[in-house]
Amino acid sequence: MWESQGDSAAGLISSTKLGVQTQEFHQRGSSWYVYKFIMLMPSSVAVNLFIYCVIVSRYVSADIPSDLLIQIAETNFHLHKYPLLSRSAKLNRILYDSRDPDLSKIVMDDLPGGPEAFELASKFCYGIPVDLTAGNISGLRCTAEYLEMTEDLEEGNLIFKTEAFLSYVVLSSWRDSILVLKSCEKLSPWAENLQIVRRCSESIAWKACANPKGIRWSYTGRAAKGSSPKWIEMKDSSPSRNQNQVVPPDWWFEDVSILRIDHFVRVMTAIKVKGMRFELIGAGIMHYASKWLPGLMMNEAAMPADESSNFSNSNSSSSSGGGLHMIVAASKEENTSTTSLQAKDQRMIVESLISIIPQQKDSVTCSFLLRLLRMANMLKVAPALVNELEKRVGMQFEQATLGDLLIPCYEKSETVYDVDLVQRVLEHFLVQEQSESVSPNRESFSEKQMNAKARVARLVDSYLTEVSRDRNLSLTKFQVLAEALPDSARTSDDGLYRAVDSYLKAHPTLSEHERKRLCRVMDCQKLSIDACMHAAQNERLPLRVVVQVLFSEQVKISNALANTALKEGVGVESHQYQPPVLTNRKTLLEGTPQSFQEGWTAAKKDINTLKFELETVKTKYLELQNDMENLQKQFDKLMLKQKHTSPWTSGWKKLSKLTKITDNHHHHIAPQIPTPEEPHTRKTTRRWRNSIS
């Protein structure tokens, strides 16, 4: 379609200006000489002058010596003024501005394309045919622009011919567009200003987005490895075979991946504008990263790190298996092997890839995002891009694996792994889930969200189990990460119990209060029978937690027995006989894991033992409660007794005794000495007693 039958398009151009023709350029060392120079005189009789060049101290000894030396970098060109001045406006201006007619040396170190491009331009000026290819056209076009070889000096000058070759030959070919764009890497900013990069990028994007069924395609980049697309050369296959050949949708990945990162970004941006599917764009980005960031895809790689951190920057395995990964300190030789220039280039690649990742979810894998986040932290990428990448990871956090989540802490920190990073990613995940739950189609997402939260909960529990073995991990960080998820996310707290037990093993010096605080993160009622059996015998747990575990287990057994009795009653009503022992065992086994079913006999004995111990604990608790009540009663009696024996109370008792004695005395005297004033006396006495009492 747009692929040429040959390897690459090429063309021959030459100067037809009447004046000079040269048959050969010759190089000796680092200098170029005109070997055979023929000057065509305007008269009818042509004078052919053959000049044989002899090198003597980098000068030409001949009948018509060269009168102009052009130096580009370390290469010298011994040429003649007339052929060059007739086609280059810049050289004319340099000689005119110098005010020196005998000027014989011009230095052009800033000439784009270097000596190779200037050699072709010089040959064109001398009338020697120049072979235009995809490899030299961009440099020659920039050189022509630099030398100002326009149509004002001569019709069909170098700018016109190189521009025509670019527009009509290069941009119509996939292979040539890739090669020209690759050759523009050394021509900045000339290639940008001349729109060569833009035109090649749009040409590549248009061809990549076209229907692959009608494409005659061939591999133009480096050899593919492994399971990469099987690139087929057109010239090595028959036409019938090419017509039946199925073109894979990623046929353009390998070609585009040879470009420099800034040109790759231009191509991918143009492809995105053309409307290509975001899954293919993401796959192309991952393919490019695998070639230019080899440490991104390696299972383990030594990377620079500070000596005080006690670990090297290594990529962990992507598997979710257990076991604490070994962290080995990096040597000084490894630290110095990665130069600052390489780190700068890698940082630019990572930042560019982050900026062009499609915004749609699942455009790239979560594993790729986490590995990219690891490199971004290691290379100290801009915080805004790191934050954006963390949000992208949070959008598909349920797809992550434990190996990718174990990201070392590259800053000066006491912890081995970056727990704060995982905490931030988890917060982004929860915010994303919350925004989806309030969306109009939230009913269709409810079950999916619950499954995602359950997967994230298992992942966080496994992560906590790994990082809990770090002795420098604070209790606050562990507790905050464990309590970040809502209670509904975990149907079972067995994974959280393993993390708590692992943390208690690695931190044996925790106080009783800290252990109680740590155990608050798990719910004893969500533990399985296996976890309850282990917790009942775990000496590291606080006694209060053990009692809660035993109580919750007793409640579970009671509920299981109640459900069994209910099922038995329903069976009797339906006149279906079921052996009570088998029914009880079957009902209990349905709520237990497979490991418990295999050892049912031993587990049943353990459950009976735990029930007996629970009853014993309850009995002791009641006895202690009765003893407490008796002690309280005795204490109350002592308090009352102390109140009655106070000095004020004893004074009142003495007054009451004196009153009783006085009354008795009056009762004895009254019958012997009756007086007429007796009623008055009694009334007075009663009034006095009333006042006393």
Automatic annotation (TrEMBL):
Question: Which stretches are annotated as coiled coil?
Answer: 607-641
How does the protein associate with the membrane?
A: Peripheral membrane protein
Cellular location of this protein? Endomembrane system
Involved pathway(s): Protein modification; protein ubiquitination
Q: Is Plastid one of the keywords? A: no
Q: Which residues form the NPH3 domain?
A: 250-556
Its predominant location is membrane
- Pfam families per the UniProt record, alphabetical: NPH3
* Alphabetical UniProt keywords: Coiled coil, Ubl conjugation pathway
Record flagged with keyword Coiled coil? yes
Domain BTB positions: 66-134
Q: Where is the composition biased (Basic residues)?
A: 682-693
**One BP annotation, GO:** protein ubiquitination
What are the boundaries of the region Disordered?
668-693
Protein family per UniProt: Belongs to the NPH3 family.
PANTHER family per record: OS12G0117600 PROTEIN
Specify the protein name.
NPH3 domain-containing protein
Name the species this protein comes from: Arachis hypogaea
| Organism classification | Eukaryota, Viridiplantae, Streptophyta, Embryophyta, Tracheophyta
